[in-house]
Amino acid sequence: MSFFEKLSTAPASDTVAEQVIIGQTEKDDGYGDCCGMTYKQRFIGFLICMILGFFISLMSLFGAFDIVLRPTRFAVLYSIGNVLQLTGSLMLWGPVKQVKDMYSTVDRGISSTTYILCIIGTILVCIFYPKWYLVIPLVLVQFIAGVWYTLSHFPRIRNCLLRCCVRGCCGGD
Known about the structure:
By secondary structure, the chain is mainly alpha-helical.
């Protein structure tokens, strides 16, 4: 029986082995359950959202060339791509587990909050006051916060990257 066959035949909270695949434990009390979908459906939804979000963010780069004249096209597409990517992980892990994970440490909580506020801020600025000198900093901070949030799941890589940046900027050991 293949991996996907096992996932598709079990209900959302059937066996411990399948719960471990997505980081769910018995103590979760169903927090990882996402609308009663099977693991296969959740995984497929995750892949669709992540791939679609990536391509929409990539498509936004075509609008980056005229960001000074029309910042809205680039920034809104980029932000929608990021929202789709967050939705993909939310679909896989479940809403409560995702939010718990986003705020499990102070560092991750700060980067998550900054990331979400920049996505919202970028879209609001593009709707109500679409000026490139406001949009560009918001998109840059959104990008950095997204990268930092992603790296917060890999603390050793994040610490190594931070040390390299400090050494590069400060020129010291």
